[in-house]
Amino acid sequence: MNRRDFYKRMVMLGIGVQGSSTIGKSTGSRQQAGSYYEEPSKKLPVRKFDVVVAGGGTAGVVAAIAAARNGAKTALIEVKGYPGGTVTEGGTALHSFYNLWKAFPGVKKRQVVRGIAQEIIDRLLRVGGTSGHAEMSKGYNYDSVCTCIDTEMYKLVTFEMLVEAGVFVCVNTLVAGAIMDGSRIKGVIVESRSGREAFYAKCFVDCTAYGDLAAFAGAKYSEPNDYPVVNSIGIANVSIEKLHDFLEKHDAIIQQAEGIRSGKDGQIVRIQGRTAKLPGGFGEKAGKIGMSMVTTTVHDNYFMFIKLNFKMPVSPTNRDEVAKAELELRRRQAKAIELFREYIPGCEKAFIARTSPKLCIRRGRLITCDYDISHEDVIEGRHFDDEIMVYGFHDSAPRYQIKNGGTYGFPYRALRVAGIENLLASGMLITSDHRAHMSTRNTVCCMGQGQASGTAAALCAAKNCGTRELRYSNLREALEKGDVYFES
Ligand SMILES: Cc1cc2nc3c(=O)[nH]c(=O)nc-3n(C[C@H](O)[C@H](O)[C@H](O)COP(=O)(O)OP(=O)(O)OC[C@H]3O[C@@H](n4cnc5c(N)ncnc54)[C@H](O)[C@@H]3O)c2cc1C
What we know:
The chain has about 500 residues and is α+β, with helices and mostly antiparallel strands.
């Protein structure tokens, strides 16, 4: 079963819920009827910035670097101890810097995302932290190029880039509320072991994946609950060659790519197996724990990101249901490692070397923006007068591809949070259509969005204007200076 079919089955089992915009305005959105404690009001220390980026994940890292490089005094607030987010915790590889050219004879291979995203890969290459842009040798018509990363080096490299750009990096710090002045965000409330503080800024970017800041600010959102949640595992003490031979013997290879592994080029760095073809009922057992057999790696003896999927009955913003899911996923991880040891040659002494610190989502809140990219925009390869990047990958290929192996444009208005004067959003939290989201939510697209929203936020702060007053020509010029690729 491929990724698309897997999601489809999960969605059929899912229950969508509508969100309300009351979070942050009361003492809790899911408080049960009963007793209440009234918090005493308190004076908070204030820090002032031009731009505050909430969430230092896939999109947020790039947004903060872009904002700082464009002259803004920038703070990045990240609840975990490191930047990186889902690209270091849940994804399988970075998709994709390139168009899907291979499915279209005669169409040229083009690198359509560059800028800060490519800089991160260049830095990783220098420290042996990536496969490079690895081209598919099998299964290529739906996944032409993927870029595998060493997740730990990614955290370090991006942390260093943030500091070098002059970003005030607040890790282990939670965005816990918004301070509003009408439809303008005046500041965010942050919490850390240094206490509760107010960070004021002129412009804000929500890259929290969950849309926490937008929800705190009273923006409109829904909670589609249209994907399973995941905790992926990194498995060590394994042989990728033996896995390859085993899959090949059973004619079970769906996808394969070669790139740099343990310093040597031309090695298998990504392989996906059709579990149903494997003997001993492996497929059925893997299916029961939501396990998919796609792995990427940049090191010998290590498989990254073996995914364990679980469909929650409600949206992953529900703390108590998340607690149940966290336990269930860890039980599934234990069963997964048993399956590897029992069935896969070269994995007899495998062990779990890493898990994600918390479950990963593919979507939490869906934040309403001024424009919502449609599925037709994506597959018809539409371009816009105010586009801030182009993108050419679709997770549901070959069923859905961008027309003629080309690209679609990403309009600036798709990043502007509706109803709020000075808030942009980037990452998995925008794009309502599930099929369109299967393109826009991919890591490299999130990174490109981040560069645009950080750049725009810095320009808005410099000009003291709202996100809707920013002149597109100024934004475009700054993005081109930042090596963002446009088709024309
Ligand atoms: C299992 C799985 C497999 C995937 N496979 C692929 C793949 O193969 N290829 C691909 O390209 N994409 C893949 N994706 C999609 C892609 O990884 C994500 O869509 C993308 O990384 C999301 O980026 P983001 O910036 O929106 O969110 P994130 O990277 O999750 O960043 C959000 C950040 O905000 C922080 N945060 C959240 N709330 C707060 C708060 N209140 N205060 C402070 N910080 C906060 C989080 O800790 C996190 O660091 C996959 C995703 C999953 C879950």
